[in-house]
Amino acid sequence: MIVEHLTEKEIQQYAIDRPGCEISTVEHLETCEYCNARVASYQLMFTAFSELSAPVNEFDLSSMVMSRIKQKKKSFLPDDLFVYSLVLVALVFTGVVLYSFRYVFLQLFRNLSYTVVYSAAATIFTILLLQLIENYKKYQRKTDALDIV
């Protein structure tokens, strides 16, 4: 027999499904008035909930919500064209500079020891990884803030 009072979960389980309860729970409830009173209050509450009717709305909630959400058009706007052209110019410029000075860059890295090169690569990789994690967390917070489900 259980000496302490039952937990909320055990009392709710007993109120919903008596045959599915453990024997020790049933034995405790045969002698404990406090736990029996809690079971009775849960049974009364569950009965009241089962008698409630589902609320009927006279309006279409989904259409009201969807009308407030701004739908972004999937078009190729002039602003996007300007940004894409700037990115293309920057990439072409970077490519031309790297190609033009390729021998200088190769000579620059040949004089460095492997330890320095690997340390720099590890540092760059770590910084990029931390920025990726930060951006992902920021994305998760913004998604959670939308609260759409």
Looking at this protein, list some descriptive labels.
about 150 residues, mainly alpha, 7 helices, membrane, Zinc-finger domain-containing protein, transmembrane helix, transmembrane
Structure in words:
The chain has 149 residues and is mainly alpha-helical. The chain has three domains: 8-51, no CATH class; 76-111; 113-149. Helix content is 74%, strand content 0%. It contains seven helices and no strands. Helix 1 (8-16) crosses helix 3 (33-51). It is elongated, with a radius of gyration of 33 Å.
How do the helices and strands line up, and which of them pair or pack?
Blueprint: H1 8-16, H2 23-31, H3 33-51, H4 61-68, H5 78-100, H6 102-110, H7 114-146
Write a compact overview of the structure shown.
This is Zinc-finger domain-containing protein. The protein is mostly helical and 149 residues long. It has seven helices and no strands.
Q: How many helical elements?
A: 7
Main beta sheet: none
Give the DSSP E fraction (strand runs of 2 or more residues): under 5%
Rounded mean pLDDT score:
83
Distance between the termini: 45 Å
The figure for the number of domains is: 3
What is the overall shape?
Answer: elongated
The low-confidence parts are none
**What string gives the helices and strands in order?**
HHHHHHH
SS-based class: mainly alpha
Number of strands: 0
| Radius of gyration, CA atoms, in whole angstroms | 33 Å
Helix content: over 70%
